[in-house]
Write a structure and sequence with these properties.
binds beta-D-glucopyranose; six-stranded mixed sheet; 809 residues
């Protein structure tokens, strides 16, 4: 044993309580060599912590989430986090967590890499679907419940991505610029709850920088806030490849570098540690934390694999269905729903991604289920044999645009051996069109990566009217028409399609310039144009649309277009908007079902629809839940965890995104999501917390009872309609006057209640005085101000019939 470890052991014996876990940790630590300690703090084979059999440390196996236990073959694919959040039901979140815990044990998984608790600050974030919406309180309640559920089964949960990792494009480079009060009150809250209330075992860093420093080595964030202020004693791990230096990570609180020790390794640490040139305390702290979690969960005592739990577990399947039933949100209904089996004889389903089923967004959370059900099959199953179901896979033909070669005399292609179109081109040639997926260098003098191309030329429109211009690129692209910049996505990213529309005049010639660069990954450059008319006209079955009693139009994104690693547009693809517009011209019975992880643009097409359902990504049984809702077997009760704006323009979203020169400025500060809409008196399309039911509820009987350190809010809700249903009673609070800027109101409590027709229930919601505190940056602490706090109760952030005043002294 070295002198250092003897000294440390001595120190810890003096200070450590007689906790058997801590005693065990110290005993093992004392036996480990420097080399062994370094070996423990770097991941192995992407999903493991290395075993050390000499000192009795087992191998630790991880799996991704949050949609399921996704890494080790097929597994139950639950609805995405955004659907779980829409249920506003922490008891269901806990059931989900327990179910995940069992799925993990069926696969011998010790650490589940979820839940994700970043906030839907902007709708474009490609990972919103994994998270739980825009509100820190709602996200906190859900996260704590999920963590408790998972960890109750003896599996470690990992809350991620710490912190302010709220967009995907350039996520490895960008810095989120956020002031401290906004961080503390909004973006850090769910992490704080996960640590303090959920006792989460692990926290994963974001890829991003926070105010200029990588989250994986951010001293203030990790050692100051997470481990200092909140007392987190578990493992702080890097996201996969999010570590960027040996010293920063070693000294500033990263405990485990994943997926492999690229920076914290023998080569970078051992010699200096050995020579006493590097402080060994951080290393011991990292090892202690990893051992603490291993011993706390008893991973050294028994195998994690429980072969008695089936991998395709019917119990998990039921939980997946329960979440979809509660978390599907009905946002518009002109009375068409629920469909009546005695009146509806035929249903037409249209859309892309309908078969086999659009169950999840993409990336590291995508879970491959054992089985899933499509919308038409689910409707057949639920509606019964009296209802005929037809399906037509209406798919936009946008990719056909890439075959466009109608350039006058071809395009001049200038190829540069750099990513910035700088200097003299290495290669100049004529290209007939832009439809490349290079697997080799595009030409002599160029490499497979790090090149850029400028194409210039002109084209003549062959008809009058609207044209769609489409570019699919990996990585950046800029398009100019007649000198005007029409598309600008000059960023590193996976293949993504961007479109814009222009009205062209028959016979007129237009100048075109397309600029492209290839950074890493695939080298895809595709561009073209086609009349909007040609996008859909051949595929829409107009007779069937006219004659159907209900036309279910499935739209939105999918696991390619809404995914980790890339952001997505606010609007759903152009051909889908066109499809809805065409259908609504032919039928008054158009029910739009949308798949997205946050808000989308619904203007103007929403006006023509009879109903609009936000399905999110509903998992393997989601379409069964959808069919049950369509036919009224399940009364919808989900509430939107995000605000749907009428348009981006005129809201903070328009300036909040994209980042500028590697910086994402959180200029709206505290006023994100519904807080911005309330403060600026802007009516949203659908407010936060809103969702329709097939019955009606009445609120009354507000009573405010002061209690020790807070208030108890009592309210009665009555089902005044004719069918049973669930309502989510929501409590908001806000100061009329304050010494600091404040939100008009914020969600502070909620409760889901089930009510038979005519039935009333009284709910009691506790409001702790600390819940209305603000963070005083100068005083480094939370302050509860005396004053009048308005308390509202209702069923959305904008429908709050009950109001009272709490005089807080
Ligand atoms: C994601 C994490 C994930 C990890 C491991 C990363 O790309 O950002 O959320 O847990 O991969 O697959």
């Amino acid at each position: 044993m070295s002198l250092i470890s003897l000294a440390l052991l001595g120190a810890s014996i003096l200070s450590a309580p007689l906790d058997p876990v801590e005693t065990h940790v110290e005993a093992t630590l004392a036996k480990m060599t420097l080399k062994e300690k370094i070996t423990l703090i770097g991941g192995d084979r992407s999903m493991f912590i290395r075993p050390n059999l000499r000192v009795g440390i087992p191998e630790i196996k991880m799996s991704d989430g949050p949609v399921g236990v996704r890494t080790w073959g097929p597994s139950t694919a639950y609805p995405a986090g955004i659907v779980l959040a829409a249920a506003f039901d922490p008891s269901l979140s806990q059931r989900f967590g327990e179910s995940i815990g069992r799925d993990a044990k069926a696969r011998g998984v010790h650490i589940w890499l979820a839940p994700g608790v970043n906030l839907a600050r902007v709708p474009q974030n490609g990972r919103n679907f994994e998270y739980q919406g825009e509100d820190p309180y709602l996200t906190s309640r859900g996260a704590v419940a999920v963590i408790k559920g998972v960890q109750s089964q003896g599996v470690v949960a990992t809350v991620k991505h710490f912190a302010a990792n709220d967009h995907e494009n350039d996520r490895n480079m960008d810095s989120s610029e956020v002031d401290e009060r906004t961080l503390r009150e909004i973006y850090l809250r769910p992490f704080e709850a996960a640590v303090k209330e959920g006792h989460v075992g692990a926290v994963m860093s974001g890829y991003n920088k926070l105010n200029g420093t990588y989250a994986s080595e951010h001293q203030w964030l990790v050692q100051g806030v997470l481990k200092g202020d909140w007392g987190f004693d578990g493992i702080y791990m890097s996201d996969w490849g999010a570590a960027h230096s040996s010293r920063g990570t070693y000294l500033h609180g990263l405990d485990l570098e994943m997926p492999s020790p690229d920076f914290m390794n023998e080569k970078s640490l051992l010699q200096e540690l050995d020579k006493g040139q590097l402080d060994p305390k951080p290393l011991d702290d990292k090892v202690r934390r990893i051992l603490r979690i291993i011993y706390r969960f008893g991973f050294d005592k028994k195998p994690q694999l429980d072969p008695t739990i089936p991998k395709d577990d019917p119990a998990s399947d039921r939980v997946a269905l329960a979440i979809a039933r509660e978390g599907t949100v009905l946002l518009k209904n002109d009375g068409i729903l629920p469909l009546r089996r005695d009146r509806v004889r035929n249903v037409l389903v249209l859309g892309p991604d309908v078969v086999p089923a659009n169950i999840s967004g993409g990336g590291s959370s995508y879970t491959d289920p054992f089985h899933k059900i499509s919308i038409p099959d689910a409707i057949k199953k639920i509606a019964g044999s009296g209802v005929e179901v037809n399906f037509r896979p209406v798919i936009g033909k946008i990719n056909e645009a890439f075959a466009f070669t109608g350039y006058e005399g071809g395009l001049k292609g200038e190829y540069f051996a750099n990513k910035t179109l700088s200097g003299t081109p290495t290669l100049v040639r004529k290209d007939a069109g832009i439809d490349f997926n290079w697997h080799v260098a595009p030409g002599k003098g160029l490499a497979q990566t790090d090149f850029s191309v400028r194409w210039t030329g002109s084209f003549r429109a062959k008809s009058d009217g609207a044209y769609v211009f489409a570019a699919r690129t990996d990585d950046g692209v800029r398009v100019y028409v007649d000198g005007k910049l029409m598309l600008d996505r000059w960023i590193d990213r996976g293949a993504a399609t961007d479109t814009f529309q222009l009205n062209l005049k028959k016979g007129q010639s237009y100048a075109l310039k397309v600029e492209y660069y290839q950074g890493m990954g695939d080298a895809i450059a595709q561009f073209g144009l086609m009349p909007v008319e040609e996008l859909l006209s051949n595929t829409l079955p107009t007779d069937l649309v006219r004659s159907a009693d209900a036309v279910v139009v499935s739209v939105g994104f999918n696991s390619d277009t809404e995914s980790e690693g890339q952001d997505r547009p606010f609007e759903i693809p152009m051909e889908q908007r066109l499809m809805i517009e065409r259908v609504t011209k032919l039928s008054k019975r158009c029910i739009v079902v949308n798949h997205s992880g946050a808000a989308i643009g619904t203007t103007p097409w929403i006006d023509g629809t009879a109903a609009f359902i936000q399905a999110g990504y509903p998992g393997q049984n989601g379409n069964q839940a959808l069919a049950e809702i369509l036919f009224g077997d399940v009364n919808p009760s989900g509430k939107s965890p995000v605000t749907f704006p009428k348009a981006l323009l005129g809201t903070y979203y328009a300036t909040a995104y994209p980042p500028v020169k590697g910086k994402m400025f959180y200029r709206e500060g505290l006023f994100m999501g519904y807080r911005w809409f309330d403060k600026n008196n802007v009516a949203p399309r659908f407010p936060f917390g809103f969702g329709l039911s097939y019955t009606k509820f009445r609120f009354g009987g507000l009573k405010l009872h002061p209690i020790v350190n807070g208030l108890e809010v009592e309210a009665t809700v009555t089902n005044t309609g004719s069918v049973k249903g669930d309502e989510v009673v929501q409590l908001y609070a806000g100061y009329a006057q304050s010494s600091v800027p404040r939100a008009v109101r914020e969600l502070k409590g909620f409760q889901r209640v089930s009510l038979a027709p005519g039935q009333s229930k009284t709910v009691h919601l506790a409001l702790d005085r600390n819940a209305v505190a603000f963070y005083d940056v100068a005083k480094h602490g939370w302050v509860v101000e005396a004053g009048d706090v308005t308390v509202w109760v209702g069923d959305s952030s904008r429908d709050l019939p009950l109001k009272g005043i709490w005089s807080l002294r």
